[in-house]
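User: My notes are a mess, but here's the protein and pyridoxal-5'-phosphate's SMILES. Can you give me a structure?
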Amino acid sequence: MVQVNENFLKLKAGYLFPEIGRRVTAFSQANPSAKIIRLGIGDVTEPLPPAVIKAMHQAVDDMAARETFKGYGPEQGYAFLREPIAEHDFAARGIDISADEIFISDGSKCDSGNILDILGSSNRIAISDPVYPVYVDTNVMAGHTGAADASGRFEGLVYLPGNEANNFVPELPSEPVDLIYLCYPNNPTGTVATKETLKGWVDYARANNALILFDAAYEAFISDPTIPHSIFEIEGAKEVAIEFRSFSKSIGFTGVRCGLTVVPKQLMGTTPAGEKVSLHQLWNRRQSTKFNGASYVVQKGAAAAYTAEGQAQMRGLVDFYMTNARLLREGLSKVGIKVFGGVNAPYVWLRTPKNLSSWDFFDLLLSQAHVVGTPGSGFGAAGEGYFRLSAFNSRQNVEESLERIFKVIG
Ligand SMILES: *Cc1c(COP(=O)(O)O)cnc(C)c1O
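Assistant: No problem, the inputs look usable. Here's the predicted complex:
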């Protein structure tokens, strides 16, 4: 008899996005003429930058001739992509990360889950609340937690609550932890961490021999020049942090698939016997065994984002979404809704009006405005009473959804 991984059975049955889908389908079946606008799931809507498209077309042509054909590439990624990343994303910001510390992948969600392959099973794990659900669910699947309680919190995880008092930037844990997930700019709250905040985490990790898993998927959306784009802008971070990045949101690669993970060479983990082991070597071993590299065509497309033309087009794309974010933020504030984020991140996090629960506000917006957002409680117990709207949409849809929301709330 084949046994299953019973940890999967601990995951909550009514998972957030399927439940949203169920309610939206039920509503549109009952109201077939309603034109629903989706500001819910964090997926991009605009086409790829022209420089990226051109590079991908050329890469397909390379595949069409024996002389330029590519088979398996390096599992770690091609140098033609790793080198410009090291130069533009790190050296240009004064960060010393070499190309061979950068591992190219098919996306950062995958890497942030896969990283658990190289980590032990008895780490004490700190997770922000609200949080990107992948960090929690991958630890549940790996057997690092007990069961969930009524509020959805899993036994064995250390939850760090974000709230209005700390501006949704959780404080350091009051108990010792070994593994810390940080995501800045944050999904779902759209908030950012200052250099001082990140220095606090790096100092904590160094003092406690902890590891920070830093998700920088939204770094391209930072507009405030004082906000760090990388954890490695903090002195000493190379000894305590792994960073995940993605081309999904910056150049619209959610469907194309490309990301990267930075594992510094001096980063060490510890065996139960107290021996130090290189995490760079373990990740390299893991990727070489379980991954065969991101596609050549895709990596050529990502590399084009680092040309002068590509950089300007990426800026244009980011600015387009951030104008949407500004419209959402300003419009909602005008009708008295308290909003967070939306300045350095493409998400606006709002307090639900009239103290409605997250799901009651979801139902109100869906039924009255035909607008779909994401209930904050789906991101964790501390998200109850809050709601996320995404700036990933056309200008017209953002403007129309605001007008409809004003009619319901204004
Ligand atoms: C969108 C997103 C990513 C990107 O994931 P990919 O697999 O690269 O598409 C990573 N982290 C967070 C928090 C995200 O919202």
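The chain is about 35% helix and 15% strand.
User: Great, I'll file this with my notes.
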